[in-house]
Amino acid sequence: MFPLRLLMAAVLAVTATGCAVGPDYRRPDAPVPDHYLGQAAAPHGPASDLAAWWNGFGDPQLSGYVAQALERNLDLAQATARVAQARAGLGAANAALLPSGTVTGSAARAYQSAETPLGRVLAATPGNDRWGNAYDANVAASWEIDLAGGLRRGREAAQADYQAASADAVAARLAVAAQTADIYIGIRGLQARLDIAQRQVATRRDLLAKVGLLYAKGVAPEYQVRQTEGELAQAEATVPALQAGLDAALNALDVMLGTPPGTHRDALRVSSPNSSPIPSVPAIGAMGSPADLLQRRPDLIAAERRVAAGHARIGAAMAEYYPHVSLGALLGTATTLSSGHLFSGGASQGAAMLGVRWRLFDFGRIDAQIGQATGREAEALAAYRLAVLHATEDVENAFSALANRARQADILVRGETALARSRAATFAGYQRGAGSLIDVLRADETLLQTADARAQAQTDVARAAVAAYKALGGGWDPDVRNMENGAALQAAR
Fold it and tell me: What's 137's DSSP letter?
């Protein structure tokens, strides 16, 4: 009687509470500062649409490629498949709380051995033979009563996993958009640098032609011709390296768009000098505070949802301390050794069952399972807080790069303008005999280096803007409650 009384006391205690065992979840605190250190230095402007930040660059081709990548990218296809898996897991957890039913039926014909006790009886009974038929049709139902709330905690964990998978899909979407924009800007930057290098090659070829003409007239010595040839070769050598980098970037963009390498090469070709400049950097508006990252960045939402899932699994493990009660019922009909009476009153059968499973002497293993669940939750919590720190670090680094690269680009633009005038004056002096060829070649080299650095700085500014939008969680609308298509997600509060 003692185990029965203990069982009833446990059942009554859990039933009286009316809730699932284990601690209820509370959103953990996150280490976020009050404001961004680099926020004042970042370019500001009217509030922009963070959900489609790529349109702010004013480049229709960039916007088109981002839209195509969001539709066709294969990394997004994998993320969508993972969301479907998590949704199926949530469906299974919901189904575990509901009664289950089965319908079974069977028909058999058997031949009984005469050497068995039953066979000897049948053989000795007049009118019976050793052949027999058996028919069976039943409807069965069972239901586990979730007294301790273990199944409900399991459903909470599955729901949090589903929300984390949905947030991961959104994070993958933002990463694809940012990477596509970054590759496109890199392509335009390499094309600008390649154009500078090719113009420099053309300038030095023209210089070589003029020096050669002066040499033919006996005005210039031969060493100036050879020196100009060497400088021309040095300028020509930069073109293959830039072209190799450009080809790799073009191939990378094709892969991002889910197409074979070379598909979009003609569409990205520069038809004339300066026809496809590096995209201009938009002003960043409505950047919010660091605390807003917890709601905007889907990777942080996913990390927080994993903490919630780990927390719920602690309750699911604690539910194993309590007995599991299930109800079962069976209604059907069965006949043996004859046919034609399967659905008669005499063939009906039924049963009602009460099942109890209690790991009464297995509490040591339950303790270990709870310890494992607690450890996994602690790991998820540390990962979440670390992700928050990295998120604020991303924003600060992006703001710093954006502001400093913009200043660098402005300085280099002014320097390039001044050096271009200096080069023109130096060459004019050389033609009049007031200067040396060395001065012209040095002016050319300095101008080339400054122009190339200016193109790189302008490219870095645009790429820093992309990194800033990504770090801020731009690229989706957190107010749209649609977890199914991966465009947005509802985080459980």
Answer: E
Contact 16, 292 (CB under 8 A): no
Backbone angles phi, psi at 311, to 5 degrees: -65, -45
* Domain 17-97+149-321+367-471 homologous superfamily, CATH: Outer membrane efflux proteins (OEP) (1.20.1600.10)
Q: Taking a C-beta distance cutoff of 8 angstroms, is the pair 163, 490 a contact?
A: yes
Asked whether the predicted pLDDT for residue 76 surpasses 80, the reply is: no
Residue 348 pLDDT > 80: no
The pLDDT value given to residue 483: 39
User: What is the DSSP secondary structure assignment for residue 319, as one 8-state letter?
Assistant: G
Query: In 269-362, which residue ranges form alpha helices assigned H by DSSP?
Result: 293-296, 298-318
- Residue 141's pLDDT is what? 74
pLDDT mean across residues, the chain:
79
Work out the average pLDDT over 205-232.
Answer: 82
User: 98-145+324-357: which CATH topology?
Assistant: Outer membrane efflux proteins (OEP) (2.20.200)
Two tokens, residue 356 = 């109890």
Closest among 61, 62, 56 to 283, alpha carbons compared: 56
Return d(Cα 392, Cα 275) in angstroms, integer: 37
For residues 48 and 285, what is the distance between their CA atoms, to the nearest angstrom?
A: 5
pLDDT at 486: 39
Six token digits for residue 159? 């729901």
- Phi then psi dihedrals of residue 393, to 5 deg: -65, -40
Condensed to tens digits (0 to 9), the pLDDT of residues 187-202 reads: 999 999 898 888 888 8
Give, as one character, the DSSP assignment of residue 32: -
Query: Per-domain residue ranges for the chain?
Result: 17-97+149-321+367-471, 98-145+324-357
Question: Residue 223: how many CB atoms within 10 A of its CB?
Answer: 10
Domains 17-97+149-321+367-471 and 98-145+324-357 share a fold: no
Strand order through the sheet with 348-357: 100-111, 131-145, 324-336, 348-357
Taking 60 as the threshold, does the pLDDT of residue 489 lie above it?
Answer: no
pLDDT exceeds 50 at position 4 = no
Please enumerate, as own/partner, the contacts of 35-40 that have beta carbons within 8 Å and a separation of 24 or more. 35/289, 35/290, 36/287, 36/289, 36/290, 36/392, 36/395, 36/396, 36/399, 37/396, 37/399, 38/395, 38/396, 38/399, 38/400, 38/403, 39/287, 39/399
Could you read off the pLDDT of 12-35 as tens digits, one per residue?
A: 444 444 567 778 888 888 888 877
Q: Residue 214 corresponds to which tokens in the numbers above? A: 């002066």
